[in-house]
Amino acid sequence: MPLVSFDYKDFIHLLGYDIPKERLIERLPMIGGDFSHAEGDEINIEFFPNRPDLTSVEGIARASRAFFGYKTGLQTYPLHPSDITLRVEASVKPIRPFVTTALVKNIQITDELIVSLMGLQEKLHIGLGRNRKKVAIGVHNAEPVTPPFTYKAVDPDVVSFVPLAKDESMTLREILHRHEKGIGYAHLLASYSKYPLIVDAHDNVLSFPPIINGTLTEVTPDTKNIFIDVTGTDRKAINYALNIVTTALAERGGTIYQTTVLDEGKKLVSPDLTPQKQQVSVADVNRILGTRLKDKEVATYLKMMGYNATKGKQGSLLVEVPAWRSDILHEIDLIEDVAVGYGFDRFETDFPKALTFGGTLAHHNLHERVRSVMIGLGYNEVTTFVITNEKDETLRLGLPQTNMVEIENPIGEEYSILRVNLLPSLLKLLRENRHHPLPQQIFEVGVVVDHQAKNQHRLAGMKIDAKAHFTECKAVVETVMRECGEKLIIKEAMHPAFIDGRCATVTHNGMDVGVFGELHPRTIQEFSLEHPVIAFELEIDVLARTTSV
What we know:
There is one protein chain. The protein is α+β, with helices and mostly antiparallel strands. Helices cover 28% and strands 28% of the residues. It contains 16 helices and 28 strands. Strands 4, 5, 6, 7, 8, 11, 12, 13, 14, 15 and 16 form an 11-stranded mixed sheet that branches. Strands 20-23-24-28-27-26-25 form a 7-stranded mixed sheet, with helices on both faces. A hairpin with a 5-residue loop joins strand 23 (440-449) and strand 24 (455-464). The longest helix has 17 residues, at 235-251.
């Protein structure tokens, strides 16, 4: 969980109300965190990662204002228009397609603000931004540059500028090889021939996302106006990040000005702090929490969590969700916040009404045996997301489109369906670790979901190495089957993700239950890998039904 450190006096200044330090330390973690330690006026609290809006002292002060009853309901911030625009060129779309911007004026730069802003930026990069892959934030002194701005892709050997923490000009490629941040995040751009860049009207460089800003726009103690850019691969995520940063600066006294992004003929005005509206059933609240709360009581507890709540449809409340709450996806999330506002310490404890005895699930012993076999073969177990996207599941493997379970309200395009194969998940993991030494051997015993929304357990393994070959993969599959007591049939086969002549299927009672072999170079390149890969995937539910364990 992200650890947030803040000064008690600075917190009280932002809160606008006096609260004893002891009461703050006792009650604040009830919002959704765990008290770590305090040294003098410095308080350290670990907040749950689902609340990126609480990763700064400004966000904590805003939430506390409502939670402690000083100012309940939805916090609002006035937005002012500006003539600042940023134009998105088509060249950057295949690399890092989304960008959003804002301007915050009348900032009083203090040591507390700089420390908090830097901490917030890095925590958002790690959590919401998935180590800058999904979201990268640039914070700039707005005064040295001239709008309109342009977001484009450029030749990495042509453009040069002086990056932060350096005093010499470097090309973009040199930054990736010589700058500390460039070396650390070079893998995010490794598969592209051009790199993203944000420049002003005179081609002065503001930012080389997601790597580093230029010294020209470095924030200093004399900075009064801050320009913020957020780039990424998920539009919702970058908007949440922008809302969190701009409102944090507004808590410090800044004035938020909206800017316009010109993208593919559309004018996107940001930040947009319009609250989302969701219904929550009072009956569902009481059923799930085991309470007997009335409508007004539920509304009161929601307001203590920073929402507006008014009477909605019959038996429901209409809730206005703050634009910086990226964790609210479903009614159940609102019900959880009702419980937080009500107070977990107020729920009565009780003993179970009935005694039950646990037992091992039918497939558990087989899964443990399979894990032991794979670990014995030198493979490392991994766990990946069941939620994925159609491009990774079918197109990158060369498979035809098929019926898959789709998510009705996905948080982003990258996570929009439930997977039907394990192999793409392992390939993406290898892609994220391609800058580490070879060989890499990983496996997963995981769940896939068929077109009827039924879970299936599968075993998949993968090895990337310059010397990986079909015979080695066949030996691994045969070892797994032998240790499971199965005598399955291996037949030569063709699969679009594998090389012809170096692919086989595993059959059981005349039905294909697995595939293995050497991955096709096209498949390897689709996942930005550069070395031979052997892989297999088996339906182990079949083994569970036929193996005595």
